[in-house]
Amino acid sequence: RYRMPGESPFGAAVSEVLDMEKREIYTSIRKTIMIMVSYVLIAVAVSALVFTQSNLLILKVFGVLIDVVIAAAFVFTFRKMLNRKPLFVFDENGVTDYSKPEDIITLPWNQLVSVGLKAANSNDLMLNIVGYKTADQLDNIAPEIRQQLAANDNKAYYAFEVSGLWVARKDIREIFEWMKETIPALNGEIQF
């Protein structure tokens, strides 16, 4: 059956049962600022050690190279902080991963296999979402992928990770709790 633009892939019955409010996850400004402050402190410490404690030219060159790498990481993190586009979107179409703009992937709710919440370290959580797409949902399939599809019941599996490094713990926990309450109505086989 043809689906009209904007129509849910699950039909009217699901939209009547669920109030599928669009939810989005963004990069945490607080976390990116903390990371950038850490970069600055490390760069200052490296420079201070190399330029005050050593007369060897090789160590000074090495210290400058380390500072250049730290400066590049600082710029990357700063750009990530300024980008106010969502990393992940949860809506009637499923979960869409925008974390890599060149490789945007949407997994429909009925094709999710599992959702898990785990501690990434003592401070951060990580949300893992595993799902699949079938061969007819994929574009430009390489021969290697065709072999993997054949071995996996014609399914290509994807794992989305919402990292606590970039996303606030509260946001990860809220999305996980929302998924536990909402998604089983769309996919009774999903594992939490």
Describe the structure.
The protein is an alpha+beta fold and 192 residues long. Helices cover 42% and strands 21% of the residues. It is built from 5 helices and 7 strands, in the order αβααβββββαβα. The protein has a 4-stranded antiparallel sheet with strand order 1-2-3-4, covered by helices on one side. A 3-stranded antiparallel sheet has the order 5-6-7. Helix 2 packs antiparallel against helix 3 (57-82). The two termini are 31 Å apart. The model is unreliable at 1-17 (pLDDT under 50).
Short description:
The protein has 192 residues and is of the alpha+beta class. Helix content is 42%, strand content 21%.
Q: Based on CA inertia axes, which overall geometry fits? A: elongated
Instruction: Give the strand tally.
Output: 7
How does the helix and strand content classify structurally? alpha+beta
Q: What is the H-and-E element order? A: HEHHEEEEEHEH
Number of helices: 5
